[in-house]
Amino acid sequence: MRVVIIGLGFIGGSMGLALKQTNELGWEVVGYLRRSEAVSDVLKLGVVDRVEMDLERAVNEAELVIIATPVLAIREVLAHIAYYLSPGCIVTDTGSTKFEVMRWAEDLLPPTVYFVGGHPMAGKEIHGIQAAEAGLFQGHIYCITPAKKTPPWAVDKVATMVKQLGSEPFFVDAQEHDNLVAGISHLPMLLSATLVSATTKDTSWDKLSKLAASGYRDLTRLASGNPEMNAHICFTNKQAIIHWIDEFTAELTKYRQLVNMGDKRLEEILGEANRARHEWLNGT
Q: How much is the average pLDDT of 158-182?
């Protein structure tokens, strides 16, 4: 089977490496690149078996196409490749939001092509092909959101690919997916960036920066993520993200009131948060 990866950044590159290293099914992994200067690096890293620089030729006769681009670029890619996909081809993506992507796929792809939305819950704040890791997806959840008209055999093929990556398939509705990841992924990214903005813009940042240690580093890690990808996430999941910002703001206001009043209940609430996090870490 020919697998085509469109978007050879950190996620797409890691998928290519993983599929090549665990290729028990003998799949040919083809990568699409727009820039000729990147071809030698991609081949040297062993991310794909071969590279195509013509998108139409890359997807022609492909059995599985993986779109690993920033979310808003997925619509453009779908529109571009729709005419050139062979009947029976399966298209999937790695976008961090799903509702809009599923709508684009339904509108743009021909009825002879099957779409299965995907989202690996294994990203990092680093980006770029040089950072690609074959083991990135090992032991992680991989969300799968099949389109309504996609037959079970096509869904099974994507699930097989996910297992080859070392991930566990997790089937979820597009709207539910976006609501859930807004709370545990998108909100943390914004909180991380907000903390950096608030502290680095302060007039005392020159002294703050000297004192900043592991706590600040841990909380601001996500601010180092790809700005384009993070902005695209926000633009395609507005309502769910705003909901969680409001929830967080209300909770932070409670903490503020307790701090301001010197209320002894603060210790109790901090203890509840402490226990809740440990329960999550221990899987209970």
A: 97
Superfamily for 177-281? Answer: 6-phosphogluconate dehydrogenase C-terminal like domain (1.10.3660.10)
Going 131 to 144 to 26 to 28, the CA torsion angle's sign is negative
Do 22 and 164 form a contact (C-beta atoms < 8 A)? yes
CATH of domain 2-172: 3.40.50.720
pTM: predicted TM-score of the whole model, two decimal places:
0.93
DSSP 49-71: SEEES-HHHHHTT-SEEEE-S-H
Q: How do residues 201-238 score in pLDDT, each as one tens digit?
A: 999 999 999 999 999 999 999 999 999 999 999 999 99
pLDDT at 257 over 80: yes
| Residue spans of alpha helices (H) in the chain | 10-21, 39-45, 55-59, 71-81, 99-108, 152-164, 174-181, 187-200, 205-211, 214-219, 227-235, 238-261, 265-281
Burial class of residue 210 (count of CB atoms within 10 Å of its CB; 0-12, 13-18, 19+): exposed
How many other CB atoms are there within 10 angstroms of residue 36's CB atom? 9
Q: CA 25 to CA 8: how far, in whole Å?
A: 22
Render pLDDT for 1-29 as a digit per residue (tens, 0 to 9).
899 999 999 999 999 999 988 766 688 99
Residue found under tokens 């950190």 = 10
CB-based contact 94:122 (threshold 8 Å): no
